[in-house]
Design brief:
Structural class: mainly beta
Radius of gyration: 19 Å
Number of strands: 10
Largest sheet: 10 strands, antiparallel
Number of domains: 1
Shape: globular
Strand content: 35-45%
Number of helices: 2
Helix content: 10-25%
Oligomer: single chain
Length: 183
């Protein structure tokens, strides 16, 4: 970048902070999951930072700065531990060879993430996105996509996240998910 003052990026950042400006955009998200049994008892609470995949960042940049169509609805899906090898920045909904989706829930579709208006440099849902588990399964993680089709392979993948340890769910359990994205 041409800089008529000959200042480094670090010097620019220092000047901006001195002026009270903080405009370093680093999109980061996290999932908070409450895992409840059939009686509503808390079985576990998990916090997962997510990785925003390449196609997700490209969509954000294109829709924000190039007039590419905005995606107006996002959905959460579950990642199965069976056959899991890795999450990757290059993952897409049609190609994610390191993982498969778990459909061990009775909801007809992936669960919608419904955020409130952005404020204080973040956007989140205040009503949890709930998965009604209907089969025993071992989960490895969570993802967000633009397509609600349970088990589907189309749409734009936004992000993926892995649990620190596998999470075992049973018929009757509920996963109550909050997702927060900040910039």
């Amino acid at each position: 970048m041409f800089d008529p003052l000959g200042m480094s990026d670090r010097a620019h950042a220092s000047v901006d902070r001195a002026r009270g400006l903080d405009h370093d955009l680093r999109a980061a998200g996290k999932f908070i999951i409450e895992h409840r049994d059939a009686q509503g008892n808390l079985k576990g609470k998990y916090e997962l930072p997510n990785g925003i995949v390449d196609v997700g960042i490209h969509h954000l940049l294109d829709s924000g700065f190039r007039a590419t169509a905005q995606i107006t609805a996002w959905y959460i899906g579950l990642i199965d531990n069976a056959g899991f090898t890795a999450l990757a920045n290059g993952d897409t909904m049609s190609s994610h060879t390191g993982w498969a989706e778990s459909t061990a829930y009775s909801n007809a579709n992936r669960v919608q993430w419904s955020p409130i208006a952005a404020a204080t440099r973040l956007i989140t849902n205040t009503t949890t996105s709930d998965f009604n588990i209907n089969a025993a399964a071992t989960l490895k993680g969570i993802f967000i996509t633009s397509n609600n089709t349970k088990g589907g392979t189309t749409g734009t993948l936004w992000s993926t996240a892995a649990f620190g340890s596998n999470v075992t769910v049973a018929n009757g359990d509920t996963l109550k998910i909050t997702y927060t994205l900040s910039g």
